[in-house]
Design a protein that fits this description.
single chain, about 625 residues, mainly alpha, Rossmann fold, 5-stranded parallel β-sheet
Length: about 625
């Protein structure tokens, strides 16, 4: 198995781009800089950020006593639901500066001053809703009242929301936490308005960096995983620190997702596309796109992954693994004008290539399909998941003593992953309807492919170029009993009877539902017109896909198309949601479920279950979604 986390070793040939990003920071020489690393889900943003950070940290100028860079990472997604992301970023930056000042034994007092100003802003923000609609004397007395009085000018006009008792409770908690420093904070404060206090914070921050002679580099990752509010709060906090000398921000996020967060943040307002673009572009000075992997990169990536597995299975020695990795990564740097052949893979591993010959064959043949298949498109994370699924199935096959060749399993799994539901069902029907478990229609297709003859579509669903490429992929499957392979794909191949019961319109809407990424205003009315019985069958298939995908949030969101069309099917969906392990209950769909009467009891159970993820419990308690 391969971990689904960022890599510290450059297996994707991102090193050149990472070095370019690090050089931009070095060449800025203290000039404020913001780099936006953009790319889709799983494209390798985190890996590119990790490599950039490593490149920046490894080189310390000769004669320098310490690095001229203070490097830190901030993941807004980790704070979502626990703490205000805006305050969390400011606090993380100030704490990091204080830590470095203590380590260098210089300018500790100035670093402490920055920390205090950040904390004062936090208390002022908490005090805002309390002060908005109540007199100081009516809500608090003693030291707390003294603080609120001192903060009045700072927060005046910040909030128009009605005062609630919980605002004061939160403020009291924050006051109690910082009470030892509070008198000093209030006594030192010279600014009586929020803009002046922010400017004072920026000045203190800038002076500290200048005195220490360092550049602060903040790597912000996983911003596109956050809910819109958290994403925007983080961007707003960065804006407060942007354009301060001796700072650099590297922001990794899917640009389209961030633009969507901006739209969601300004929901209800007539905001033009140009304003959305302007909001994001004002934050990002240098956009850096994660390069999409080509056939060469994917071929090498697969070869390196398979070699890593072979070492763990003691089929290849670490010496040959290192030799192959070094040779292939070096080859990638010069292979931009030519392809990497099967022979190149063999040469890279030398005598060790014999031990992983089948694996290298798979890498060589599979790479073009994984790049060109629209459902994978060379995405590193999807490739890794494809390979992990392959390893799981091989383990199951071995435990069940199934006579399965890895090349055949790869080919069938690729069809299962990329083919449309209708195309895969056609393949399954051909196998299950044959007493010998063979797909007879493949014989003519594979014979024509071997003779380089014209591809003739065996079924309307097999008309795209992918199927023509898939047929040419080794090994040939015609003449083989494929029932064992389908048994490993049973989550998708079961339910043929239910599929047959669907009308042509039902089958079309099943395809559309499977492709939906969220609730569709176009799809829901069509499902309403189809009828509840057919939509229930569709929901069964969509739930099965979600189960196979380990309850991925996107898979669960597409299920809501069916329940939006026919709320009576909510109970069917709830039964599926009850299968999800407590610690994996999806936070992302909670806002969609909170208003559904059929989900109320389920959300109450999730809220009160001590095994639910803390983030889920906090959301449900704060929104009272379970009541």
């Amino acid at each position: 198995m391969w971990h689904d986390i960022e890599a510290e070793v450059d297996l994707l040939n991102f090193g050149v781009v990472a070095r370019a990003a690090a050089d931009l920071i070095r060449q800025a020489d203290g000039t404020p800089l913001t780099i936006g690393v953009s790319g889709g889900w799983g494209a390798g943003k985190s890996t590119l950020v990790k490599l950039t950070k490593a490149d920046l940290e490894k080189a310390v100028p000769s004669g320098a006593a310490a690095s001229p860079y203070i490097v830190m990472e901030f993941n807004a997604w980790l704070y979502q639901g626990y703490e205000d992301a805006r305050q969390a970023l400011l606090q993380a930056v100030s704490d990091r500066l204080l830590e470095e000042a203590k380590k260098r034994e210089s300018f500790v007092d100035k670093a402490v001053a920055v920390v205090k100003r950040v904390r004062l802003l936090k208390l002022a923000r908490l005090a805002a809703p309390v002060l908005a609609h109540a007199g100081i004397g009516s809500i608090a007395g003693g030291p707390l009242g003294t603080f609120i009085g001192a903060a009045t000018g700072l927060v005046k006009g910040l909030s128009d929301e009605a005062m609630r008792e919980e605002n004061l409770a939160v403020l009291k908690d924050a006051y109690a936490e910082l009470k030892p420093e509070l008198k000093e904070l209030v006594g030192e404060r010279e600014d009586d308005s929020l803009p002046k206090e922010i400017q004072a914070l920026r000045k203190a921050f800038e002076d500290l960096l200048a005195d220490m002679g360092v550049t602060l580099v903040v790597f912000v990752d996983d911003l596109d995983r956050c809910l819109p509010h958290t994403a925007i709060a983080t961007l707003e906090a960065m804006r407060l620190l942007l354009h301060v000398k001796n700072t650099a921000f590297v922001i990794a996020a899917d640009e389209a997702m961030i633009r969507g967060a901006v739209r969601a943040h300004f929901a209800g307002m007539d905001i033009e596309s140009g304003l959305v673009t302007s909001y994001f572009d004002k934050l990002i000075q240098i956009p850096l796109k994660v390069p999409r992997l080509g056939v060469n990169e994917v071929k090498v990536y697969l070869a390196l992954m398979m070699a890593d597995l072979a070492v763990r299975q003691q089929q290849l020695t670490p010496r040959f693994q290192t030799q192959g990795q070094t040779a292939l990564l070096a080859l990638l740097k010069t292979a931009w004008g030519k392809g990497i052949t099967r022979e190149d893979l063999t040469k890279a591993y030398g005598d060790g290539a014999k031990s992983i010959s089948t694996a290298l064959d798979i890498a060589d043949q599979l790479a073009p399909l994984l790049v060109n298949a629209s459902d994978i498109a060379g995405n590193p994370r999807l490739i890794k998941r494809f390979m992990n699924n392959l390893m799981i199935r091989l383990t199951i096959a071995k435990a069940m003593e199934m006579p399965i060749a890895i090349e055949q399993l790869v080919k069938v799994q690729l069809l299962e992953r990329v083919a449309s539901s209708a195309a895969f069902e056609f393949f399954v029907k051909a196998v299950v309807s044959n007493p010998d478990g063979k797909a007879d229609f493949l014989e003519a297709l594979e014979r024509a492919a071997q003779a380089d003859e014209e591809y003739i579509t065996p079924h309307p669903s097999w008309s795209t170029p992918f199927y023509q490429q898939w047929v040419r992929l080794s090994p040939r499957l015609s003449g083989s009993d494929l029932r064992a392979l389908l048994h490993l794909s049973r989550d998708r191949s079961l339910g043929l009877a239910a599929y047959d019961e669907l009308s042509e319109e039902g089958k079309r809407l099943l395809e559309a539902t499977m492709e939906a990424k969220e609730v569709s205003r176009v799809l829901v009315p069509q499902l309403m017109a189809l009828g509840q019985a057919d939509v229930s069958r569709i929901l069964t298939r969509v739930i099965r896909k979600a189960r196979d995908g380990q309850w991925n949030s996107v898979d669960l969101l597409r299920c809501l198309n069916c329940t939006e069309a026919h709320p009576e099917l909510g109970e069917q969906f709830v039964q599926a949601l009850e299968e999800i392990p407590p610690g994996s209950r999806p936070y992302a769909i909670l806002p969609k479920l909170r208003s559904k009467p059929w989900a109320a009891l389920l959300l109450t159970e999730w809220r009160d279950d001590p095994e639910s993820a803390e983030q889920v419990k906090i959301y449900l308690k704060s929104s009272k979604a379970g009541n």
